[in-house]
Amino acid sequence: MIRVLFVDDHEMVRIGVSAYLSAQPDIEVVAEAANGKEGVEKAFECRPDIILMDLVMEGMDGIEATGKIISEWPEAKIIIVTSFIDDEKVYPALEAGAVSYLLKTSTADEIAGAIRATYGGQSILEPEVTGKLMGKRRKEPLHDQLTKREKEVLLLMAEGKTNQEIADLLFIAPKTVKVHVSNVLGKLEVQDRTQAVVYAFRHHLIK
To answer: What is the pLDDT of residues 173-200, one digit of tens each?
Structure first.
């Protein structure tokens, strides 16, 4: 079963979507939250496989909640489900650590499909979001998307360190290193560690 936490300030939305998802043979909504603060607490309490996160909520919004969760739990898989597609919402949400971004116009089937895909390691983005990101990438180098931690991991990869050695040096779990390596490969649009290191040398990220 894919265990899901649903964070949204509209009770009727939570009730409807949760009922549909819980009727799926492979998905279980294990907790709900009505705001970002409660969402962060529930996330650490039940450690779900997937977190569905609304963006605009009173108090702590979805962007701040996503950032807080990822800062303490980097491997958390957060799907933004919102009505907003503007740049000031999309980019901060993805930069905070969300891996998928859906609009509330998505059907229940599409949300369920996104949950399964994200759980399986894919990143599901609305076509409009993909277009925005591609436009941004044309203006900025791919490595500008790397977080500080991902850059540290990339440098250690260039030194030939294994995931276990990187974990020991950065005082993080090997599983977390694996997530960072996957993020580095994805953001640099390369297939393996060797290609990532070659990219780093070509762009003078490693001296």
So the answer is: 999 999 999 999 988 888 888 889 888 8
